[in-house]
Design brief:
Length: about 450
């Protein structure tokens, strides 16, 4: 009877282990199954804590001969699941975190009657939960230890307020800008940002006032069409409060400023699309005349002090929610993604090179969705194979070079990453992502 129970226990263990490994090695294919949905944006904290509790419980079961097999089986399943997860994130070399506890569990399963062995293994397995702290988010770039975020303009605000004759406050905002944040969730003080604001997008609620502000007397948008801010360092002040140091350029003047910021949203997926979000707000006081935004004597009714108001919602798209366009013809992006999943990136790249417009919807945007989906799954090398061909077919698309730069940086290839981002910046000089990545990689 005891032998039958032992055999049943290990058959169940092997079955569960097979399920974990099958999903991990197949990168949790996007077929609506629970594993893909659950692991898409990394295991939540509560689940990792649960795994830690299970490991400790298993270690305790190893202390008694009668329950040692159950504890060993639990460790085998959990560790194989952890190994599969690391493979899914594209870090197979890190599976040694689970390999050692796995080996201990197998040894105990075989020699559970040896007391010293059981106690030694149980003590070692008590430390196993620490291995889960090293998991890497799917969008983290290994070379710089950060993630690339754009700003969600629809839900962010870059505004200002200025006193008018001591009678009222004039409020305004800039509606068009491009920005990139390199964000490190574990160490926010290592984050950085670049933002370029289109001054012509100024909006104070009065077209006559806006016309005056755009004129040569104030911003002179014909000569100075943009403002620019680039951080130099982030100083942590405790409890999600930071001082962001950087250089602000308005017109022909660049001055160092310090922006007090409060982190309001830590890294999390939103409930609607699964986009990864971060957020913060802050502001500062500047003196407009220091930046040659004067207006002359006719505008002395405005104070020199200007309050800058910032509310930032950072965004990383969940490309699983982006649709491939296939009306009369199949989307080349959908075909490439399927080939890369079922075979590899080299096969998908060959498919793209041989594709004809008569057979597919052959658009760079469709290829971009496929590439970003692969990058999202940490299939970085496969995405890079496609990007090499895409850059040949659409040489003037800066986005392909930017994604190639990110891929090379993730793979630790510094020179290749610099080359691709330099190309992206030459094609699109206002590319804040290329600016940010180049200065981080070079430093």
């Amino acid at each position: 009877m005891a032998i039958a129970k032992e055999i049943a226990l290990w058959l169940i263990t092997l079955l569960l282990a097979f399920v974990f490994l099958a999903h991990g090695l197949n990168k949790f294919p996007a077929n609506g199954r629970w594993a893909h949905d659950f692991a898409q944006w990394h295991f939540p904290v509560w689940f990792r804590l649960l795994i830690g509790v299970i490991e400790i419980a298993a270690a305790l079961l190893l202390l008694w001969p009668r329950t040692a097999s159950i504890g060993a089986a639990m460790i085998v399943v959990v560790m194989l699941g952890g190994m599969a997860t690391r493979i899914w994130w594209g870090h197979p070399k890190e599976t040694f975190h689970e390999a050692i506890p796995l080996a201990l569990a197998v040894i105990i399963g075989i020699g559970r009657r040896t007391r010293r062995l059981r106690f030694t293994a149980a003590a070692a397995l008590m430390l196993a939960p620490l291995a889960f702290g090293a998991d890497i988010p799917p969008a983290r770039i290994d070379m710089i230890g950060a993630e690339i975020y754009s700003i969600d303009q629809s839900h962010s605000h870059i505004g200002f307020a200025i006193d008018f004759l001591g009678l009222s406050t004039v409020h305004g905002a800039f509606n068009d800008y491009t920005a990139t944040i390199l964000y490190d969730e574990a160490h926010p003080e290592r984050s950085s940002a670049t933002i370029i604001i289109d001054v012509v997008s100024i909006d104070t609620g009065s077209q006559f006032r806006d016309r005056d502000l755009k004129s040569a007397k104030f911003f002179d948008v014909e000569k100075f069409p943009e403002m620019r801010f680039q951080s130099t360092r982030v100083e942590a002040k405790g409890n999600n409060h930071f001082l962001v140091h950087g250089n602000l350029t308005i017109k022909d003047v660049t001055k160092e400023i310090v922006i007090p910021m409060t982190r309001t949203i830590t890294r999390r997926p939103d409930a609607a699309w699964g986009n990864i979000r971060i957020g913060g707000n802050g502001g500062l006081l500047i003196h407009r005349k220091e930046f040659h935004v004067d207006g002359g004597e006719s505008f002395n009714m405005l104070t020199d002090d200007v309050n800058i108001e910032l509310e930032v919602l950072g965004n990383r798209f969940n490309y699983d929610k982006w649709n491939f366009t296939s009306k009369e013809k199949p989307s080349i992006g959908e075909a490439l993604f399927k080939t890369a999943q079922e075979q590899d990136g080299a096969a998908a790249a060959a498919q793209l090179r041989a594709a004809k417009a008569s057979e597919y919807t052959l658009e760079p945007g469709q290829v971009g969705i496929a590439v970003n989906r692969l990058m999202q799954r940490r299939k970085v090398a496969d995405a890079l194979e496609i990007l090499k061909v895409a850059a040949e077919l659409w040489p003037n698309e800066p986005g392909f070079h930017a994604r190639a730069g990110e891929a090379y940086a993730t793979l630790g290839k510094r020179d290749d990453a610099v080359r691709e981002y330099e190309k992206a910046l030459s094609l699109y000089p206002r590319g804040t992502e290329a600016m940010e990545m180049l200065r981080r990689i070079r430093s």
